[in-house]
Amino acid sequence: DVKVTQSSRYLVKRTGEKVFLECVQDMDHENMFWYRQDPGLGLRLIYFSYDVKMKEKGDIPEGYSVSREKKERFSLILESASTNQTSMYLCASSLVLGGPWMDEQYFGPGTRLTVT
Amino acid sequence: GNSVTQMEGPVTLSEEAFLTINCTYTATGYPSLFWYVQYPGEGLQLLLKATKADDKGSNKGFEATYRKETTSFHLEKGSVQVSDSAVYFCALSDQTLMFSGGYNKLIFGAGTRLAVHP
After folding, report:
1. Alpha carbon distance A31, B28 (integer Å)
2. Residues of B with CB below 8 A from A97's CB?
3. What is the pLDDT of residues B83-103, one digit of tens each?
């Protein structure tokens, strides 16, 4: 059974702290994604990685960075957390992208981050 | 630009009622269209998809038809169950939405919450 796991379901951090959100997939997928989910806004892509050490900015990369040192692991980093980064963070992975066929993305359960 | 618009929720239905959740899109090129579902406390799962005009995606009693003339992909189910209570997201993938590596991406709607009561 395919699986995407995220390190924490709930996280509370203080303003200015450095925050690491970890995501691991066991499907040998090349592509991994970080989204944030906010009420009324749906999912917005923060960063995307299509290979180890490769990354692309999504729609809202400001205030975030990512790291992909191993194929199965994709980390989202908040260098200095702010209250407007309070949100649900979802990680996803997929096998292949491109062409007229969009392969399915598999999602983790999400991390609800609160920054106080 | 490319976008997806869904009907606002919550949608509240009795068990065995007919469900329609409207989804319309704007896109350049020829998008593929998707419905994802998020059950309480879980991540998103792909429910169904359609990759070209007039295709019908179906799964678990849900259906949606890709209507290019009306730029719509409405989700329907003939008889909902309490277990269908979830948030439903419409999404599109367009080849013109390319990253520098030539990969396309998903654009999601805001989501529609469905609550089914016995």
Report:
1. 24
2. 103-105
3. 999 999 999 986 655 555 555
Report the gap between the CA of A106 and the closest CA in chain B (Å).
7
CA B66 to chain A, closest CA, distance in angstroms equals 15
Are residues A45 and B46, on separate chains, in Cβ contact within 8 Å? Answer: no
Mapped onto helix, strand or coil, the DSSP state of residue A59 is coil
Residues 38..77 of B with a Cβ closer than 8 Å to A: which? 41-46, 49, 51-52
pLDDT category of residue A98 using cuts at 50, 70 and 90: low
Beta carbons within 8 Å of A33's beta carbon, 6+ residues apart: A45, A47, A48, A49, A58, A74, A91, A92, A93, A94, A105
Q: Is A110 on the interface with B (CB under 8 A)?
A: yes
CA dihedral B35→B41→B42→B48, nearest 10 degrees, is: -20
Residues 6+ apart with CB under 8 A from A1: none
Residue B105: pLDDT band with limits 50, 70, 90: confident
How do residues B27-55 score in pLDDT, each as one tens digit? 877 788 999 999 988 889 999 999 889 99
A97 touches chain B (CB under 8 A): yes
